[in-house]
Amino acid sequence: MGCPGNVDDNAACSDSWDQYNYWYLSWGDPAAFATPEIYYNVPPGTPINAEQWGEISDYGAAYQSDGIVFTAPFSQHERDSDSLTAAQAWDDLETYSGQSDFRTTWSYQPPTSKSPGS
Predict the structure, then answer these.
(1) Residue 90 maps to a domain
(2) Does the pLDDT value for residue 20 go beyond 90?
């Protein structure tokens, strides 16, 4: 994607898009589900994909009043064993977006209102 991993002010990305474009397609559009691909660390130890998505979410929070709530990251470990596993992808995304893996933090809360007539 080529977006900077250290700024959140609608910075330009290397493909003529900017952070707004990625924010809108992944979260701003009502039909969107945020599922970024977090698959590698380049250089080793630097989770560039996660940093980029964290900054795009920060852009949304700062300029669109709506940071991204990530559904899940994609990884490609099954295809490329040198890339991140699904758990590593979540860890990196959590670190740079501040969002925890929903599978371990979200729990169903039943409705508290009573149905009519009860």
Answers:
(1) yes
(2) yes
Q: Domain for residue 67, yes or no?
A: yes
Q: Give whole-number Cα distances, 98 to 9, 14, 24, 45, 59, in Å.
A: 18, 25, 19, 18, 14
pLDDT averaged over every residue in the chain:
80
Answer whether residue 1 is part of any domain.
no
Q: What are the phi and psi torsion angles at 95 (to 5°)? A: -60, -45
Q: Is-contact 41 85, C-beta < 8 A? A: no
The alpha carbon torsion through 59, 55, 29, 111 (nearest 10 deg) reads -100
In a domain, 43, yes or no: yes
The domain of 37 spans 19-105
pLDDT band at 94 (very low <50, low <70, confident <90, very high): confident
pTM (two decimals): 0.77
